[in-house]
Amino acid sequence: MWWRSRAKASLLRPLIRRPSPIYSTQVCLQTLPLIPPPPPSPAWIRPVDACLPTLRFFSSAQQCEDVGKGSYELGRIKTDENSEADESLTRLWNENIDDDEHDTSDIFADEKFSEAAANECDVVADVDLDQVEKVRSLLGGTWQDSLETRLDQIDVRLSAELVALVLQTPDVLPQNLINFFIWAWKSEETVRSSRTVEILVNAVSGSTELSKMEAYKLWDLVKEIGKNKAVLNTSILNQLISLFGRLQKPRAGLEVFNKFGDFGCYPDRNTYCLTIAALGTRSLFNTAWPVCEKMLTSEDLPDGENIGKIITFLCKGKKAKEAHLVYLMAQQKEMLLPRSCLDNLVRSLSGKEETLQMALELLNNYPKEYVRNANPIFALVIQGLCRAKQPQEAKQLLLRMVHSGPPPGTAVFNYVITALSKGGEMEDAISLMNLIKERGLQPDIYTYSVIMSGFAEGGLMDEAYQIYREAKKKHSKLSPVTYHILIRGYCKMEEYEKALECLKEMKEDGVRPNSDEYNKLIRSLCLKALDWRTAEKLLEEMKESGVFLKDATRSLISAVKELEEEAKSESVGDEV
Predict the structure, then answer these.
(1) Is the pLDDT reported for residue 97 higher than 90?
(2) What is the DSSP letter of 190?
(3) Fewer beta carbons under 10 A from the terminal one: N or C of the chain?
């Protein structure tokens, strides 16, 4: 009866090495360096995007026949239905095999089930397991003559199914798999299909023994096969790009990418992602950008996480404008990008004056959930605006932070106050200092010093001194810079008595003057007031304090003293 052959197939099934459960290849980028391939998997595990038909059953006799002809359409087999049929058959067999008296005439009455069982039996019968084992043992051995010669010596009835089973044998050297495939490709027409090529590429790519020379040999073989445009597909080429990326041979991966059109294939989002990742292993930023441009033109972008890694990779290569173009395309497609990538992009854009506006606009589109912890990023843009002498724009961004977050700290206020003070916009600087107080923060010594400097530069020494008095009330000890600002300002206004008083107050406050304060006073006294006596007293004071004056300034005191003596001599001579 026909069920006996079905039972035979069920018993033979464990002898056949089958693919493991479907493994899905995830395309991911690293930093950027950049996208490591998935961990090596055994050769018999194949990616789901390969869409290879399972070798165990086919849902119809026609599909089985198509596979034998090497023209089976990929992805049409439903493995879940086959597994259910297999389990049902095993269960029925166990229930009825020992029951001789039970009438089994209607057990397998379902015609569709009966047909599927018969088809599986036909597939098993098409593959000679003994021949499969012979070829496997041959590939696993070492021989003095060539592998092709050995293969010619054994009597093998080649078929696409036999070749597929052999290629999925674990722990076979990639070199032997490639040589066996070349031999089978030449010898049997049914082997010449996308399916067998894809099985070969998956098997070789997943081998832990793969060398760079073997990878190049595989690529040469694929290029030869690609002369027939009907054989290769996108999945095969993506596997090769990923392989060269793992081996850190990005230019070979780029060659695969550039060959898509020649092979009649079309890049998909994984293709762009894998190619950019491969180029990232050698930091080939300029070479990667044309690939990115093609990706943007196709509008077939990877997911948000991988787009984020591409943006970060371009920022690392100082391609902020290019990274911004990728960001705009992602925004157009309403992708939610990782916060880290947006932060990197803002950091790169804020580094140059020409891209500052892009950074500012990007902050306006920051997702609300990212804004709360984005204080350092907002600060970078404010610094950039201050550096570009755009204090009012920096002030507006600061006020936005005050009203809608992230809350600014004193350091961010100081950036803007410094820019405003240098620009002479002292009213705005004072208003920001008062805003610091209103928010419950304390202006630090730097804040006071910056505003004092702004007033001193404008010759407003009374206002500068008032800020100094306020700073002394809030802080027990000031910085030497604070006193230096006043001394320099008074010398500039030729108010030397006030400058000397400030120097005296500095010492009384426990702040030791350095050579800069003395140097500024002595030079001003000598060059403007011609008061070498006061300058000489300061020089003696310096010696007692262990502070050394520059030789040029020391010589200046002697020169002014000599000039005064010469002038007196000439005056006496004129009187005589």
Answers:
(1) no
(2) G
(3) C
Q: 216 exposed, middle or buried (CB, 10 Å; 0-12, 13-18, 19+)?
A: middle
Q: How many of the other CB atoms lie within 10 Å of CB of 362?
A: 21
47 - beta bridge partners?
Answer: 23
Q: Which two tokens stand for residue 354?
A: 């020409």
Query: Is 23 strand, coil or helix?
Result: strand
| pLDDT at site 445 | 94
Q: Is residue 511 scored above 60 in pLDDT?
A: yes
CA distances (Å), origin 512, targets 23, 54, 471, 473: 72, 85, 18, 20
Single-letter code of the amino acid located at 294: K
Q: What's the CA gap between 142 and 156, in Å, rounded?
A: 19
Asked if the model's pLDDT at residue 32 lies above 90, the reply is no
pLDDT in tens, 526-561: 877 778 888 888 888 887 777 777 777 777 878 887
Percentage, residues of the chain above pLDDT 70: 76
User: Has residue 1 got a pLDDT over 50?
Assistant: no
158 has pLDDT over 60 = yes
- Is the predicted pLDDT of residue 248 greater than 60, yes or no? yes
Q: What is the DSSP string of 78-108?
A: -HHHHHHHHHHHHHHHHHHTT-SSS--TTTT
pLDDT of residue 218: 96
Number of residues that this document lists for the chain: 576
Rounded Cα gap, residues 118 and 6, in angstroms: 7
209: tokens are: 């023994």
Q: Which of 504, 492, 500 is nearest to 455 (CA)?
A: 492
HEC string for 290-340: HHHHHHHHHCCCCCHHHHHHHHHHHHHCCCHHHHHHHHHHHHHCCCCCCHH
Binned at pLDDT 50, 70 and 90, residue 515 comes out as confident
For residue 210, which amino acid is it? Answer: L
Task: Round to whole Å and give the CA distance between 534 and 308.
Answer: 66
Q: State the pTM of this model.
A: 0.70
**Three-class SS state of 520:** helix
Handedness of CA 264, 268, 274, 276 (dihedral sign): positive
The amino acid present at 7, given as its one-letter code, is A
Burial of 7 (0-12, 13-18, 19+ CB in 10 A): middle
Runs of H (alpha helix) within 127-211:
129-140, 147-153, 160-167, 174-187, 194-205
Helix (H, G, I), strand (E, B) or coil at 186: helix
Q: Residue 306 and residue 303: Cα distance in Å, rounded? A: 6
Tell me the three-class secondary structure of 100-138, residue by residue.
Answer: CCCCCCCCCCCHHHHHHHHHHHHHHHHCCHHHHHHHHHH
**pLDDT at residue 46 greater than cutoff 80:** no
The answer to whether 490 and 461 are in contact (CB under 8 A) is yes
Identify the burial level of 143 via C-beta atoms within 10 angstroms of its C-beta, where 0-12 means exposed, 13-18 middle and 19 or more buried.
exposed
Instruction: Give backbone dihedrals phi and psi of 288, rounded to 5 degrees, phi first.
Output: -75, -30
Q: What distance in Å separates the CA atoms of residue 305 and residue 314, rounded to the nearest whole number? A: 15
Q: Are 77 and 63 in contact (CB under 8 A)?
A: yes
- Residue given tokens 């190049």 in the structure block: 216
Provide mean pLDDT across the span 296-306: 94
